[in-house]
Amino acid sequence: MPDTPSRASKTLPPPAPIGAEKKAEEVQINGRPYYPGGDPDMPLLWYLRDVLRLTGTKYGCGIGACGACTVLIDGKAQRACLTPVKATMGHAVTTIEGLATDAGLHPLQRAWIEEDVAQCGYCQAGQIMAAADLLARNPNPGDDDIAKIPNLCRCGTYPRIRRAIKRAAQIAREGSK
Amino acid sequence: MNGLSRRAFLFATATASGALLVSWKFARADQPLPYRGARDEAQALGDFVRIEANGDVIIGARGCEIGQGVKTSLPMLIAEELDVGWDRVRVEQLPYGYVETDKGPSNRYGGQGAGGSDNIPSGWKELREAGAVARWLLVQAAAARWGLPAAQLRSQSGAVIAPDSRRLGYGELAAEAAALDLPKDPVPLKTPEQFSIIGKPTRTVDGEAIVTGRAQFGIDAYFTDTLFAVMLRCPHLDGGVEKVDDTEARKVPGVKNVVVIEGPNADEPIDGVLASGVAVLADSTWAALKGREKLKVEWTEGPWTGESTSALAAKANELLDRNENAVPVRNDGDFAKTRKQAPIHLEARYEMPFLAHATMEPPGAQISIEKDKAVLVASLQSPSGASQIISKLTGIPRKDIEIRLTRSGGGFGRRLKNDFVAEATLIAKAAGKPVKLIWTREDDLQHDFFRPFGVHAMSAALDKKKKIIGWSHRCAATPRNYRDRGMAEGKTPLYIGCVEPDDFPAGLVANLEKSYFPVASGMPRGWWRGPIHTFHAFAVQSFIDEIAVATKQDAVQLRLDLLGPPRHMKYEDSDKPGFETGRLAGVLQLAADKIGWKDKRSDGHGLGIACHFTFGGYAAHAFEVSVEGSELMIHRAVCAVDVGRVVNPLGVEAQMMGGTLDGISTAMNLAITLKDGQVQQRNFTDYPLMRMAQSPQSVEVYMVESTEEPSGAGEIGVPSAAPALANAIYAATTVRVRKLPLLAELKRML
Predict the structure, then answer these.
(1) From the centroid of its chain, how far is CA B294?
(2) What CATH architecture does domain B6-198 belong to?
């Protein structure tokens, strides 16, 4: 089995050597299997960034307090800075780079662009991943549901985040009709 | 071209694909200007526009994008005069444009830093001219092709149009236009009625890149063969490294090297690294972090071991009580005499905490140093400062230092300093390899150039008709940065960054004194978004409210009375235009109207208002709040703003919304405190930025329609937010908060 792909291109992980079903010795990231071979305690954040060069997932605090590193693990929002790579073995990880599909951008990504949410943009991947978890659980979230997203934004984009999540919910509803 | 080589004079060149590269200004600084344009004639040329044969337009963005929107708004200025559809424009980030001319160092792109809300004002003329020159060349090319006088042709949306309606797309003309000489005379600019891009709500050009994770921030850059570095910095102010035991650190798999970095001496200006420390280099960030944990370092404690916030507060108040040896800031009339004779006299003190910048992307830098050249990729606000530091530390001439700019995950003034660049440079020099330096959040909160700490003592004298006839503002504070080289050499007055001579109500009250008392401290200080303005607007605008309450006057009317009839007043904080009393009155009135100032509130709701002038812009905030138990509820947040002509309404709205929330978040909860000469906060758990649940659902932003020259919008949204909030809390509770952060103070007082 090859070790960690070390020459991963900047934007796309290398082709997977085997099929997409989840196995105990691999971690599936954005639909492709990887076989982390380094320090199993390395947080997923640094594995994604330093090893795979999937840099959309951001470092913000290292203690799970800010949410800039939020990814989906088996569909649930998790802090990549606190999750050791070994804990993701046998699970499916989705990062911001894997949120769009062949059909196009995720409704949240479209809504985020339309509402012009980002200012500096640094926390936004984490915000979107947290919102993706919320929308998957609750296709029609209210203000109180949205307010439970604890991710920090230093620029103060919260009002536009609120609008974008509601707009995304609407896009998703219209898309599924 | 008077015998000058066209090539030397003109940087408009055709590429192999027929693309047009248009520079604007002139090729060499010693040659006469072909047209009068650049504000700074010593600045050399730059390339901003490229047109592909297929008509695609590539516009270079020169500014440091820190979230203030300049990567969108500055190219809009060029595109407007170029006369292209914005949907055909692709924006590319320009690198730092250092060039050497016969007159000395210059920048081919003009100013590239991010400070003082200056990008829009400085780009307003220069960048529109860049677009206009490019358009002029395209029209000349069409005129030559058709054999018609250029005066008969017009341009529209990326095409030149003849009187008989024939059209030639810019792409078809690009190669020919590139072969032409630049205009000898100034090219006329559009009149505002002709604007089709300026003034249109325009989304950020990086919107899709950001939501797909492709946008590049400084932290996202990786050099081949780089080593990852983290530093353990001395926790004591101006302390040093006594002894390092790196045995265990070097045993951590992946750790490659350990390097000691010397900090500045306690009496030297800080213009390199900020603190002494030990760097761990490894093959991943994680290995470097693990290695750092294993370091055993003995520190020397430095001269500030006893320093604490409470001692600084006591010292500041003592200085104000003694009132001796003040640094004079401004003196109009005779305040002391006025006060003695006035029937009404009021005073109050306001305490401001140290603040950290806490940019979401912490400081950091990637640098590769070879024998005679260096490449830096980092999130910056001052690329020229970075260039100077690297050159000073390596001996590499600045022209051989390449600096690639990226988006920055916030700036707020933190990146006006380049200490992190200095660290990366020294580490890379010692390691002999490219280095990627990462700061953790703990590093960031503990080792910042903090906003100053201080106490404002306000005093006012009123006549029998309750008119303010005397005003005194005395401030005792840690100077904004006594180890700034300009301050250390006595070139910059000590009060800069803490008291502003011309700030409201200077010039509006006949007897006015402002004075300053420096408080010695080992805490590094620097600029924090709207630096001086956030620091003292809280005191000024809270005190005005206190005067209104104490003398039973309307808080809006009292301010309007002070501002008086619209007039122009000098304001010497920079090269910005002066202060227009009418424009400040305008935003104040607008905010009051929108919040429904005259409508009585019931059920414990209270209204508060404040206004301020910052870097050429005017803003007022009005809030409706209630306090339930010890919980502060913000029911409405109104921000009225006048930044002159609005270049991008969507961007200005974002800045006002974000500035308002930054102001609220900071005022409610944020403070950096010192104990035993060490910063007590470590991470977001004890420096709690506002989360969505605490944020108002919306910020209502109202922009004044204006034909005035545009001012920047990145800072004006902050200063009046905190006092408006405190004033609203008073209205709702009759509790007056005079110390920030206000939630802790409110809980203490309720």
Answers:
(1) 38
(2) 2-Layer Sandwich (3.30)
User: pLDDT for B317-362, tens place per residue?
Assistant: 999 999 999 999 999 999 999 999 999 999 999 999 999 999 999 9
What architecture (CATH level 2) is domain B218-303+363-438? 2-Layer Sandwich (3.30)
Q: What is the distance, to the nearest Å, from the Cα of residue B246 to the centroid of all Cα atoms in its chain?
A: 39
Neighbours of B749 (CB within 10 A): 14
* pLDDT tens per residue, range A39-65: 999 999 999 999 999 999 999 999 999
Task: Compute CA distances A121 → A147, A163, B152, B203, B209, whole Å.
Answer: 19, 16, 46, 13, 9
The C-alpha R_g of chain A, in whole angstroms, comes to 16
Number of structural domains chain A divides into: 2
**What residue has token string 């104990």?**
B675
Place of tokens 């937010």: B721
How far is the C-alpha of B125 from the C-alpha of B38, rounded, in Å? 8
CATH class for domain B326-356+449-749?
Answer: alpha beta
Which residues 69-108 of A are in CB contact (within 8 Å) with B?
95-97, 99-100, 105, 108
Contacts of B689 (CB under 8 A, 6+ apart): A152, A154, B358, B665, B669, B670
Quick: pLDDT tens for B697-719: 999 999 999 999 999 999 999 99
Name the closest residue on chain B to residue A116, using Cα atoms: B203
Query: Could you tell me what percent of chain B has a pLDDT over 90?
Result: 83
Q: pLDDT digit string (tens) for B89-142? A: 999 999 999 999 999 999 989 999 999 999 999 999 999 999 999 999 999 999
pTM to 2 decimals?
Answer: 0.92
Q: How confident is the model at residue B151 (pLDDT cuts 50, 70, 90)?
A: very high
**Interchain contact, A50 vs B659, CB within 8 Å:** no
Q: Do B407 and A120 touch (CB under 8 A)?
A: yes
pLDDT value, residue B89: 94
Q: Is B218-303+363-438's fold the same as B326-356+449-749's?
A: yes
pLDDT given for residue B572 in this prediction: 81
Of B546, B554, B544, B556, nearest to B584 by C-alpha is: B556
Residue with more model confidence, B586 or B495: B586
Q: What CATH number does residue A49 fall under?
A: 3.10.20.30
Closest of B524, B474, B650 to residue B268, by C-alpha: B524
Residue spans per domain, chain B: 6-198, 218-303+363-438, 326-356+449-749
Nearest residue to B459 via CA among B518, B557, B546, B519: B546
Residue located via tokens 């609750």? A138
| Distance, CA of A135 to CA of B127 (rounded, Å) | 43
Of A98, A125, A149, which residue is a domain's last? A98
What type of residue is A100? A
Q: Which of B69, B360, B438 sits opposite A60 (nearest CB)?
A: B360
Query: Which range of residues forms the domain containing residue A38?
Result: 27-98
Q: Which residues of B touch A162 (CB under 8 A)?
A: 692, 697-698
pLDDT digits (tens, 9 = 90+) for B188-207: 999 999 999 999 999 999 99
